[in-house]
Design goal:
It is built from 4 helices and 9 strands, in the order αβαβαβββαββββ. The chain has about 190 residues and is an alpha/beta fold. The strands form 2 sheets. Strands 4-3-2-5-6-7 form a 6-stranded mixed beta sheet, sandwiched between helices. The longest helix is centred in the N-terminal third of the chain and has 18 residues. The chain binds inosinic acid and magnesium ion (MG). The site of magnesium ion has 4 residues, from strand 5.
């Protein structure tokens, strides 16, 4: 016989979070960003997109394929939130870029900029590799949550102080593969 608690949990998990940004709106904005980035780097034959794992993997996949300029892909992995939604402020490097980015033009591709601590840390790491230039691109930006001053060159959407999931973003590893950006209320808020 099925455990009643198990049945209830399954039902809860099947409820999709409410939509904040639709799949169509994301796709449209990704194309616009790709067009702008392609124009800005029109004279550049060595743009390296550095995707920040894990959250940016879907955005990076769509953005990189929509560009009309030569580009290569690298990944970097950092962690600051562990598994919850409250930033510890302390960012940890889990995996550095593998390829040589010295004297190359780098575009850091993030899923979301919240307090800004992660991007500030990433900029320091990337600069230490001696690139020709570094710019930053994020799908989502929570400007009102900024705790440190950090420049973001390309922003998909500005959002408020809410926890979002989907299109690569998660809450404790859940909801990463939702095709849209949804809003949830984390247990720890
Ligand atoms: P920051 O250091 O506070 O700017 O946080 C940046 C990182 O925290 C992002 O790259 C995400 O991985 C994660 N993050 C921040 N806000 C959210 C959210 O609303 N949903 C999912 N992940 C988030
Ligand atoms: Mg991230």
């Amino acid at each position: 016989m099925l455990d009643r608690r198990f049945v209830c949990e399954s039902i809860v998990e099947q409820t999709d979070p409410p939509v904040l940004i639709s799949e169509a709106d994301i796709q449209q904005r990704v194309l616009e960003l790709a067009e702008q980035i392609s124009a800005d780097y029109a004279d550049c034959d060595q743009l390296v997109l550095v995707g920040v794992l894990k959250g940016s993997f879907i955005f990076l996949a769509d953005l990189s394929r929509a560009l009309s300029i030569p580009r290569t892909i690298e990944f970097i992995a950092v962690s600051s939130y562990e598994t919850g939604s409250v930033s510890s402020g302390a960012v940890r490097l889990i995996m550095d870029v593998r390829g040589n980015i010295e004297n190359k033009h780098v575009l850091i591709v993030e899923d979301i900029v919240d307090t800004g601590h992660t991007l500030k840390y990433l900029l320091r790491i990337i600069h230490s590799h001696g690139p020709a230039s570094v710019r930053t691109c994020t799908l989502l930006h929570k400007a009102e949550c900024a705790e440190v001053d950090v420049d973001v060159d390309y922003i998909g959407f500005n959002i408020g102080d809410e926890w979002v999931v989907g299109y690569g973003l998660d809450y404790a590893e859940r909801d990463r593969t939702l095709p849209y950006i949804g809003v949830i209320t984390p247990d720890d808020r």
